[in-house]
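If I may wish for something, please sit down with the protein I am sending here and say whether tokens and residues agree:
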Amino acid sequence: MDILVIDDNAQVRKMLSSYLIKNGHIVEMANDGKQGWDMIERANGEYDLIFTDIKMPVMNGLELLERLRSQNMDIPVIIMTGYAVIELTLKAFKLGAYDFLTKPFEFKPLLATLDKIETIKASRQEMVNISEHYHAQVQFSIPSKTRYIKSLIPILHNHFKPLCELHKQDSHAISSCLFETVKNAIVYGNLEMNPDLKEQSSEQFNDQIIEREATNLYGNRQVHVRADFNAERLKFEIEDEGNGFDTSALPEYDESMKTLPEERGLFLVKANMDEVSWNETGNCITMVKQFK
């Protein structure tokens, strides 16, 4: 991918850029938001991904993100942030940030985020002649195999992307929420994986996912995805066939938080969606994005 890295700290710029280049990406760098914006304009917004620090001189990350969205540039933006700027991080998500990267960097989770972006961009198709009377309903029932996510998300993205463009909403952020919820429905819902194992050993965690996908007990369960799109809102229901969980124990994400969560899935969903709810048993999540 063609990536722009924006940070006023030269060491941070070089460290992140070197890592991205080693993983096969083309990288350009800017030392503040103004220089970054000038580069984006010269490139006609043709970057596949932007990394930007929040706190910078001349033009900060929030100002850059706001300018991008006001110009209807649908480029995924990952903000680079520290634990002391929770309020600014939440503001960035309200402006359409795609994900966050906390300092000091841990690069392992970054590879998964890059893979998500490439998955979403892989099968883009432009839908023409979209009007405000557009209405579509889409349903999928997929087996409990994580590999199906890479086919499902681009198809859904192609359905609602034109509506997002019409209403100047970031379609990538919505696809990120879908990616997280479908994956959770498979891994933690149908496969009944224990999140504690992931903390102990990600390698054992991934091996056990593969083992359970191959069994009749877990692998034959399905995830049901129901989507309803119109000119006023996008609505998604993701339901698994697992035992559910106690949703009352879920944390609240707001400006009172002292640290950003290590488990980013629900945080991203709550930050990007206008309405999030579960059924009584906790095996079906409903997400709504309103067009304002």
